[in-house]
Structure formats: C-alpha cells, structure tokens
Amino acid sequence: MADPDKALATQLANIEKRTGRTLAELAAIVRASGLAKHGELVAMLKTTLGMGHGDANTLVHMVRKSSGGDGAGAPAPSAAQALDDLYAGPKAALRPIHDRLLAALRTFGPFEEAPKKTYVSYRRKRQFAMIGPATRTSVEVGLNAKDLAGGDRLQAVPPGQMCNYKVRVGSADEVDEALLAWLRAAYEAAG
Fold it and tell me: How far apart are alpha carbons 42 and 63 in whole angstroms?
C-alpha cells in the first residue's frame, strides 16, 4: 500500500529541485499573484515558472491549505473526524449506515481511507469505493468494479465518472448481502 504522505513529501521536494526555490518562496509567489481561483493559480505557475500541471496543481492545493504561511500544509482531518463532520446536523441520522458499511469493509482486509469534503474515498492500489451522505435521507455508495449486474438498486454510472456504479442506502438495514457482495467485488478489483 502506498504511503500518500511520503509520496507528497517526495513530490514537494522534487518541485523545490525543479524550480530552484523553497516551498516558502513558491508559496509567496502564489499569494502575491493576486489570483484567487485554483485554475488561474495553476495556469500562472505553469506559465511563469514552467511547472508541469501536476506540480502546479499540488503546490496550489498545498498553499491554499497552508495555515502558517510557510507552505507547510495544514494537517488533514482524521478519518473519524471527517465522518463526524460529514454526518453533523441534519445528516447525523445517516451515520449508522456509514458505520455499518465501514465495519463490513474492515473485514475484507487492509485499505486506505481518504476523507474528502463530501465523502470518504476507500482505496487499495486504486479507489474501490466512495461513501458519503447524498441527501438528508440517504447515503450514496460509489463502487469501482466491472461487470456487475446493474439494476434498480445498483445503478450504472456514465463513463468518465469517479465510479462505475452507485447505490443509495436509506437505512442501516439496507446494508445487506447484495450490497456487501458488490463492495467485496470492488475491493478485490482494486487490489
């Protein structure tokens, strides 16, 4: 399993080597640009410093998350904190669904949890599932697997999306054998 923190540290060190500037200097350039939109900042770095898209994108993300102004990113929330945030307020009643899904996932074997703003991504060598509140009354489970028998419950997603299938779950009782079999298929496909 890849260590995302180590990969990010390596990429940031490589950005410093390629540009000949420290992260603090690069962060100062981004902040002094007067630009606010992510895409504008990426384009500016590509144009003015000749950075590749991946490096520019990573640098902008890092600077925008920075809390101390020195280019060091703010710590990412823990998976538990992310779940608390996702299921706060009117979506609190949905937390048992996510908890039951997560408990089942943990019986499959090791995986990484990557909290996002509106869901949590679960991955092995690649992402196999995304779980998060879709509405105030349902959780959406996105699955990356091929050749599952879609239907009313398991809906195929158009090509180009982040997952191949999605399932809406309205109660913890809907975390049944069929859903767990789809999750296992996605888990195994990502190994």
Answer: 11
